[in-house]
Amino acid sequence: MIIHVFALLAIVLYLVAAGGLARPLLSGGQPLNRLALSLAGVAVVIHAGILLGMHRGALDLHFFAALSLVAFVVSTLTLLVSLSRPVAALGVIVFPLTAVLIAVDSFLAPPTLPHAMDWQIKLHVTVALIAFSVLSMAAALAILLAVQERALRHRQFGPWLRALPPLTLTEMLLFRLIGAGFALLTLTLLTGALFVDNLFGQHLAHKTILSIVAWLVFGTLLYGRWRHGWRGQRAVNLTLLGMAMLVLAFFGSKFVLELIMHRPLD
To answer: Is the pLDDT of residue 160 over 70?
Structure first.
């Protein structure tokens, strides 16, 4: 099947791109960022074609399709950010994970049909998808920040540490992403309140509660940063806590209902 051929090509390109970005981290060799990001760009384009072909150009929110779609958005944002900021190491985390999710969606997941949605729900879902993706990038940066801080505390000044962006740049980008994600998450909650009619009938009550908890966590972090200058491990912990709440909100029910109880979401 032609989709499988393109899926394999995208997987290989994502993995090779990640390898090129990881080269200075692993060996201290010359960075291959330009080549790696070019390959990632081709992979992103192919990934878009796979999503359009497999899911008929519609928003498919079934479990594995949604994971692949989120991975596509995160990879696209990672590519765009890396073109303007020296944080290409972020792709070392994002691109291999995207390759895995393409493989699962293309070769292991059962075929699905997208649910029909009116434009209001599509708007809500699109905003939610972008919010989740931006905050996913923030979580990946938080992990990178934690690794850098730990290495500096233990005086582990290897070539991989020198290849990473300055700590202050990583931290600045982290809070910019959290700020943008928080604004989008706020818009997600507002559009959900306006456009979603039946929270309990559509299995959305717990999603709303967990999303509000995540919104409170990220809002607290941003306030603490503005008012008290929070940073370091506290910022990392709160970012990962907020992201954990969003993962449960976005994919927890899908996993239980679709994969365990075999009851697709409405």
So the answer is: no
Enter the tokens of residue 263: 């009851």
Nearest to 177 by CA among 230, 247, 130, 224: 130
Return d(Cα 203, Cα 7) in angstroms, integer: 32
Q: Residues 6 or more apart from 94 whose CB is under 8 A from it?
A: 71, 74, 75, 78, 137, 140
> Would you call 185 exposed, middle or buried from its count of C-beta atoms within 10 A (0-12, 13-18, 19+)?
buried
DSSP secondary structure letter of residue 74: H
Give the integer Cα–Cα distance in Å for 223 and 107: 44
User: Per the confidence metrics, is the pTM higher than 0.85?
Assistant: yes
Separation of first and last alpha carbons in the chain: 30
Structure tokens at 72: 């596509």
Cβ(167)–Cβ(150) under 8 Å?
no
For 139-168, b/e burial (b = at least 16 CB within 10 A) is: bbbbebbbbbbebeeeeeeeebeebbbebe
| pLDDT score, position 163 | 62
